[in-house]
Amino acid sequence: MTLTSHAIVGAAIANLAPDHPGLGFALAWASHYALDMVPHLDYDVDSLTNDIRPVHRILWNRRAMGKISLIAADFAFGMLVCMVIFAYDRTTFVATLAGVAGGMLPDFLQFCYHAWKKFPWTFFQKFHDFFHHPDKMKDKRVRGVASQILLPLAVLVGYFLVK
Ligand SMILES: [Zn+2]
């Protein structure tokens, strides 16, 4: 799923117990795999995996930089949305940061895997692939995007009902 979807779900979980950001981080991390189990359409960063090796050449690769810009925009948007929704004091700010970080972490571990292809990144990649739904939904775009939007929305509604 997009980093924004993972961030919203992670931050919602972490803010259920904002006094325990460590626990929030761990549960948000776990939520990433649960969310990836739902069939969804990801934006296409597949070719990035071929473009980031060797890592130090990324800055000279325009195609890779385009995709990294997309990921950076997704990251920034997700962070901003979560801060606006969840953070209103120091405690909720830290909890939101922990939730966003935990929620997004597995996708950054994927980046490490594609860049270095050795332990421990290979382990995390296998773990991620195990949970990620095999249907990439390239031919079911509407449903694929809908699940990206509706799932975090449902979690948000649940969050505000519980809070
Ligand atoms: Zn993922």
In short:
The chain is an all-alpha fold. The protein contains seven helices and no strands. Zinc ion binds at residues 32, 36, 106-107, 128.
Instruction: Report, as a whole number of angstroms, the end-to-end distance.
Output: 25 Å
**What order do the helices and strands follow?**
HHHHHHH
Number of domains: 1
Q: How much of the sequence is in beta strands?
A: under 5%
Q: Helical proportion?
A: over 70%
The secondary structure category is mainly alpha
Ligands (ions, cofactors included): zinc ion
* Shape verdict: globular
Unreliable parts: none
Q: Number of helical runs? A: 7
Main β-sheet: number of strands, strand sense, barrel status?
Answer: none
What is the tally of beta strands? 0
Mean pLDDT: 91
Cα-atom radius of gyration: 16 Å
Describe the protein's architecture and organization.
The chain is mostly helical and 163 residues long. It has one domain (3-162). The chain is 72% helix and 0% strand. The chain has helices spanning 3-14, 21-36, 48-51, 62-86, 90-116, 121-131, 141-162. Helix 1 packs parallel to helix 4 (62-86). Zinc ion binds at residues 32, 36, 106-107, 128.
Keywords:
single chain, 163 residues, 7 helices, 72% helix, binds zinc ion
Task: Give the secondary structure arrangement, pairings included.
Layout: H1 3-14, H2 21-36, H3 48-51, H4 62-86, H5 90-116, H6 121-131, H7 141-162
Helix pairs in contact: 1-2, 1-4, 1-5, 1-7, 2-5, 4-5, 5-6
